[in-house]
Design goal:
By secondary structure, the protein is of the alpha/beta class. The chain folds into two domains: 220 residues, Rossmann fold (3-Layer(aba) Sandwich); 107 residues, CBS-domain. The strands form four sheets. Strands 4-5-6-1-7-8 form a six-stranded mixed beta sheet, sandwiched between helices. A four-stranded mixed beta sheet has the order 9-10-11-12. A three-stranded mixed beta sheet has the order 13-14-15. Helix 5 packs across helix 7. Belongs to the ABC transporter superfamily.
Length: 358
């Protein structure tokens, strides 16, 4: 089993299937009795276990924060062990708290008992990232949280992954969580056998055996919406403009395009406004602030289901798509989603027909 760098690989299976054992073999909390585990080209058995663990982030279900330490001390623990100086640790703590959407001035001095379950888990993620490890192990980190908090933290993890690109091994027994988070999923059966190791879409469209098929059965098309990313479908190209652009030039671009409207981007290429020809009637010089504010963008790593929900909520049939640092990447429309669903449906029919013929 090979885990590609920069991907989230989910270990999925029932209780007792060996998910946590497999994870603990990676950082040698459990010693392997046979075989090899290679991390960044090196056999882990040839590495000092303590040093190995300091370079692999670890997040568990109940955060595992030290109750007698403040948030700042918990987050800065590994950098302190690595002999970072005090100013560097303090700067890193504040940087990470901001990264997990916790105001440093508000939270750095608090103790775990003063935090909600979701906040504790965010601190646990920040602590795991403190020494900037290339890999992270996450053992059912959201399993004890209420559904709303759990969904928010899943979305936060995907946003962090978009920015940081860590190699993450994530354990869960929840098929929907696995489909949402995983770039690849390893489905383990009760005998700790890997029944299938593939992308979520491949597992849904082409399950390896009856066990996997039973695991993912029911609501296949809706689950395909859950696992397909906006980044995986062709986005609508829309004429682009900047506030300083001349109105006549922008109008010419819109008329030369196929959408009948354009999008205004700020100096960092973040979407700001939609602009239509009627917004430019009689305008000379820069377009400035003309046009109508865009809806909140959807991220490229978002699922097609999230895109569909956003499109249903707004008055337009299109929404801007952004990537890292909120940079504009294109526009998703209802037509985009319809075409993607039609293609997935046809592909599923072809695969099922091929299996039947075999």
């Amino acid at each position: 089993m090979t885990i590609p760098g920069g991907e989230i690989v989910v270990l999925l299976g029932p209780s007792g299937s060996g998910k946590t054992t497999m994870m603990r073999l990676i950082n040698r909390l459990i010693e392997p009795t046979s075989g090899k585990i290679i991390v960044a080209g090196r056999d882990t058995l040839g590495l000092n276990p303590t040093e190995l663990r300091r370079h692999i982030g670890y997040v568990i279900q109940n955060a595992g924060l030290f109750p007698h330490m403040t948030v700042a001390t918990n987050v800065g623990l590994v950098p302190q062990m690595l002999k970072w100086d005090r100013d560097r640790i303090a700067a890193r703590v504040d940087e990470l708290l901001e990264l997990v959407d916790m105001d440093p001035a508000t939270f750095r001095g608090r103790y775990p008992r003063e935090l909600s379950g979701g906040q504790q888990q965010r601190v646990g993620v920040a602590r795991a990232l403190a020494a900037d490890p290339p890999a992270m192990l996450m053992d059912e980190p959201f399993g004890a949280l209420d559904p709303i908090t759990r969904e928010h933290l899943q979305d936060s993890l995907l946003r962090l992954q978009e920015e940081l690109g860590k190699t993450i091994v994530f354990v869960t027994h929840d098929i929907d969580e696995a489909l949402k988070l995983g770039d690849r999923i390893a489905i383990l059966d009760e005998g700790s056998r890997i029944a299938q190791y593939a992308t979520p879409k491949e597992i849904l469209l082409d399950p390896a055996d009856a066990y996997v098929e039973q695991f993912v059965s029911g609501g296949q098309m809706m689950r395909l919406l859950q696992v397909s990313r906006v980044a995986d479908v062709p986005l609508q190209s829309v004429p682009e403009a900047a506030p300083r652009d001349d109105a006549a030039d922008v109008l010419a671009r819109i008329r030369a395009g196929k959408t009948g409207f354009g999008i205004v981007l700020d100096e960092r290429r973040r979407p700001v406004r939609w602009i239509h020809p009627e917004d430019l009637d009689g305008v000379t010089g820069p377009i400035g602030t003309r046009g109508m504010a865009t809806a909140t963008p959807i991220r490229a790593r978002s699922t097609l289901q999230q895109a569909l929900e956003r499109l249903i909520q707004i008055e337009h049939d299109w929404v801007p798509v952004v990537g890292p640092r909120d940079v504009y990447q294109g526009t998703v429309t209802l037509g985009t989603l319809q075409n993607a669903l039609r293609e997935m449906k046809d592909r599923g029919r072809v695969r099922r027909r091929g299996t039947a013929d075999a």
